[in-house]
Each structure stands twice: as C-alpha cells, then as structure tokens.
Amino acid sequence: MSEDTHAAEAPEPMSPDDFDALDDILDDIRERQPDTPSWEVCDGFLAAVVCCRRPLGLDEVLTELLGEGAAPPAPGAPLADSDASVFSGPIQQQRFMELWQRRADEIAWALDHPVDSLEDEASFQPEVLDMVGAIAAMPEEERAEIDPADVPAIAQAWAMGFIAAVEVWADEWVPPRDKEAAGILEDTLDCISQLTEPDTGPLEIPMFAEDSPPSISRDRLDAYGEAIWAVYDLRKFWKSYGPRVASVRKEAEPGRNDPCPCGSGKKYKKCHGA
Questions:
Q1: For residue 40, which of 114, 129, 163 has the smallest C-alpha distance?
Q2: What's the whole-model pTM score?
Q3: What whole-number distance in Å separates Cα of residue 45 and Cα of residue 50?
Q4: Do residues 155 and 43 touch, judged by C-beta distance below 8 A?
Q5: Which of 23, 79, 181, 269 is 20 to 30 A from 205 in CA distance terms?
C-alpha cells in the first residue's frame, strides 16, 4: 500500500457484493472456528491497522485476527496448503486476502483525502450494521424473542474491533513523551472507546433510512461522527511521527587497564583497545 495515498487515484470502491463475500467467508470459517469475529469487528480492527504507527504485515494482522492458520503462505508456497489453514481452500484464501487489501487501500485513501463533511462521498465510513433498526422492523412476535441487551448498538462492534487492534499492538500506540501530544492521543482514542458502550439514550433517529424505525439516540449519533473524525486524526497523528526508532544500547567499553574481553590475557589498552 503506497504511503502517497493522498495524491493517488481513488481505489475502486468496495461494492455491497464485496462485503457480502467477506461476510460469507467469515461465516464459513465460523463453522470451524466459532469465535471468528464478524465483519463489522474486522472492519474496526482493519481501520486501527491502517492508522497504526508502524505498517503491519498481512501475516501478523490476519494471524492476530483469525488465528495461526490465517497467515499468507511464504513466497512461492501454495495457498492454504496445510490442514491448519482457517480457510476452506486456496480460492477462498486468495479471495479473502484480495478483498481485505482492497478495503485497507480504500480506508487509507479516504483517511488521507481531506473532506469538510462526513456527507462527502469521499469521506471514510465504517462498515456498521443497524441491528437495532433491523430488529425494530421485525413483527412484534419475533421481536419478543430477542433480548434487547443482546443487541449491539450502532458501531459498538466496530469500535470493539478498533480498540482490540490498539491493544494487540500496544507498543505501537505508546503515547509520545510530549504531554500535549499524549493528551491529544488519549482524547482521540477515547472518542472511539465511547462507542464500545451501549447506546443508553432515547432512540430518536433512524440510522440509514428516513422511513425506518428510530435506532440511534442523538448523543450516540454525535459520538459516532466524532469517532470517525478521530480516525482521521489518528491516521494523521502517527504519520506525522513516523515509525518508532528502536534505541540502540551500547555496551560499556572496558577500562584501558582492564583485561581485554577477547581472552588474550593482555590489558585492553595493549590489545583491542590499542
């Protein structure tokens, strides 16, 4: 993925069919691995990966997200050639990696492309489901069988995925020493963390269609918008700092009259210290 996504041409946008394909693959994996996350969680995880201070390889990302059997094979090795793979076969693995990379490129381009409003078609939009609205639209007898406490609020699963990735690569999200910058990072992450909590306000606004039942409170809608802007800020924040530079610890040099560490029996000043 090119760092110069700001100037690059916009990638081909993901279509509903593309997202359905990702959902289908994850559903299939879930039959073998019940704890496989939903695509909404994965999309939040991926957004944090795109914002991470250090560029992360596909192998380490998919391993953390889906398990050891999700990592791409070594160069030259066949896809999904092991029974340990989480995928059903090489076609499914190749399709997932292709769609994953396209979504990563799409997110990166959107975050690097300045917009003045989230109404702009070029703005970054998380892939979130309106489960509250979908259940509210069900017949009353079907709704009665669902415990509202089991229904995630809008963007709750997405935010959980984002924060999960931050925790996995916590070393890459260590605040800078500058107190002001550290405060900005903390406040920005808090905007996203707030979405991991339920929507406790009165449901007043339909999320995606005006003729749908109300599914989100005004406070939640405001928090959702702030969280999206926070993702923009996090991408810009870590790009301005660049990858962390590992400190090099230099071993103490022997004194001139100390024995030379090479084992010659001579003093350091008459051996390697000469």
A1: 129
A2: 0.83
A3: 9
A4: no
A5: 23
